[in-house]
Amino acid sequence: MDGIKYAVFTDKSIRLLGNNQYTSNVESGSTRTEIKHWVELFFGVKVIAMNSHRLPGKSRRMGPLMGHTMHYRRMIITLKPGYSIPPLRKKRT
Asked: Known Gene3D superfamilies for this protein (predicted)?
């Protein structure tokens, strides 16, 4: 499944790991139910809540032209107590 792109490791996401919440960037066209079913099947965990927000693309200058990167979606997945998933791969550079 190409729904989940990569895990997000920021100060906030590391703090949320203590509450059994995992943060990752997903494809902007994916729905919440698709991501939930994929996480439950692939990792064998029980998801109790999901929060998402859409992050805007950033402006980029290419010579005299202004362009922008694509927007993306970030999901915060809360698991049932007693379940955990290994950290997802970091973004490739």
From this structure: 3.30.70.330
Domain ranges (residues) in the chain: 2-56+68-77
In Å, how far are 5, 43, 57 from 60, measured between CA atoms? 22, 37, 9
- Please state, in angstroms and as integers, the Cα–Cα distance from residue 24 to each residue in 14, 28, 40, 63, 74, following that order: 12, 12, 15, 32, 6
Structure tokens at 19: 């509450």
Structure confidence by residue, pLDDT tens digits, 65-80: 999 888 889 999 999 9
pTM of the model: 0.78
pLDDT surpasses 90 at 92: no
Of the candidates 53, 46, 54, the one whose C-alpha atom is nearest the C-alpha of residue 78 is: 46
CATH number of the 2-56+68-77 domain: 3.30.70.330
